[in-house]
Amino acid sequence: MRRPASSSLSGTRRTTGISRRCAVTMGSALAAGLALTAAPAVAALPRRAPGAFEPPVQLALPLPRGSHALGAVALHLSDRSRRDPWVATRPERELMVQLWYPARAAVRLPRAPWMSGRAAAVFQQTGYLLPEYVTLPDTHARVGAAPDRRGGRRPVILYSHGHGQHRGSSTVLVEELVSHGYVVITIDHTYDAGQVEFPGGRVEKYAMPPLTGEDDDPTILKAVDVRVADTRFVLEELSRFARGGRGPLPHGLGDLLDLSRVGMFGHSLGGATAASAMAAGVPITAGANLDGSLFGPVVAKGLRKPFLLMSEDADNKPSWPEIWPRLRGWRRHLRLTGTRHFSYTDYETFMPQAASRLGATDEQLAEFIGPLDGTRGIDVQRRLLLAYFDLQLRGCRAPILEGPSPGFPEVRFIDGGDDPQGNSVGGR
Q: CA within 20 to 30 Å of 75's CA: 47, 97, 193, 390, which one?
């Protein structure tokens, strides 16, 4: 029997600074490594020549297009039925999640940071892509804002980050969904994430063993199983909140959760998590995989529920054509021309903003996030993901998913996972 879980709110301010470390990591080695969810094998750009003081670059997230204001609250969850699978000294599995929800306007409340303060400091001290002379943004969500309950219960969507990333990695997509009336829960998979900040300022860093990059890597297979267990536990906690076990949530937030309509999407290993969680019987209605290889039993078993595959332009995932004939529910494989693996994260908007300060050339940017204009890429991704969940969780028609359209020439419909022309609608 599962022992009771504990939960608490966590809120910290973001801190930033200017660093002498001028190298930024990007390029083909990074993209290739993380596309297979292997450990980040990175290539550093040359250091910029010393010169006059330059202020930090202030990053910004694009405004979501929906009509709803956004609220957010970070939540500390402890699964007392599991020891932590990565760090033996931890007697229980601890997670940080963030609940994003349609909210009443609350302009006087602080905006939620893209990444909490001490986690951000660890993230930036590594010099990994966004070093300390790049100021991380705040989101458009107000911390602890009152939920907007006028529309009744809302469909719930879970988000799982890529290997080594964090729960805020695809905030630009999360905010869009929330602005259109969804509740989204973003999960930090502790010790698989790059860094996770817990209440009191404790930061737990990445702690997985080295990876081989092979599809049968036992560490990756274990990671998927751990993430599936994390996902199941988070949904159990949400169910408790929805039944009236408010815990530390803002008043009325549990009343928004419609757990009969649950979707899940993720980037990279997060997309694999969505597929594996559905195959393992986690109660998820529809899933989406943003450019992640698939691992484990789901590849041979397949799925009977709706599943969306969205890939980068240079698609090289052998697990996708293998699972394709075993996707027995609604299915699409969409390939976005001009994108790369990290186009499905907030780097799509951040890197062009920071490029000149980082000393990155247009060629290096294109290698990392693809030649497609970032603003256009974000717009297309937002429209596709929203249309998909509107179709599967709300029963709305989704013309953008019905076949190729002159309005979206970047979107190629792939039949069987390997159609070189990309002109077939590969769906049911």
A: 390
Per-position DSSP letters for 307-358, written without gaps between them:
EEEEE-SS---THHHHHGGGB-SSEEEEEETT--GGGGSTHHHHHHHHHHHH
DSSP helix/strand/coil, 388: helix
Instruction: At 68, give phi and psi (nearest 5°).
Output: -90, 140
- Rounded to whole angstroms, the Cα distance separating 181 from 70 reads 9
Helices 171-179 and 374-394 cross at an angle (nearest 10°) of 50
φ and ψ at 246, to 5 degrees?
Answer: -60, -40
Strand partners, 423: 413
Per-residue pLDDT of 125-143, as tens digits, reads: 876 689 988 999 999 999 9
CATH code of the domain occupying 6-413: 3.40.50.1820
Which of 238, 265, 235 minimizes the C-alpha distance to 173?
265
Measured in Å, how far apart are the chain's first and last C-alpha atoms? 40
Q: What pLDDT score does 249 carry? A: 85
Tokens, residue 298 = 């789901």
Angle 172-310-41 from CA coordinates, rounded to 5° = 75
Q: DSSP secondary-structure letter at 185? A: E
CA distance 168 to 174: 9
Residue type, 265: F
Q: Residues 260, 303, 426, 179: is their CA dihedral positive or negative?
A: positive
For 233, half-sphere exposure in the C-beta direction (CA atoms, 13 angstrom radius) is 28
pTM of the full predicted structure?
0.88
Tens digit of each residue's pLDDT (9 = 90 or more) over 37-55:
333 333 333 334 444 567 8
Calpha distance 297→302 (Å, rounded): 8
Spatial contact of 36 and 316, defined as CB atoms under 8 Å apart: no
- Segment holding 301, helix H or strand E: helix 297-301
The angle at the Cα of 284, spanning 279 to 290, to the nearest 5 degrees, equals: 75
> Is 18 buried (19+), middle (13-18) or exposed (0-12) by CB count in 10 A?
middle
Whole-angstrom Cα distance, residue 166 to residue 121? 14
Could you give the CA distance from residue 144 to residue 323 in angstroms, rounded to a whole number?
41
* Region at 164 (left for phi over 0; alpha for psi -120 to 50; beta for the rest): left
Q: Which helix (H) or strand (E) holds 239?
A: helix 218-242
Task: Give tens-digit pLDDT for 65-117.
Answer: 999 999 999 999 999 999 999 999 999 999 999 999 999 999 999 999 999 99
Domain range summary for the chain, segments of one domain joined by +: 6-413
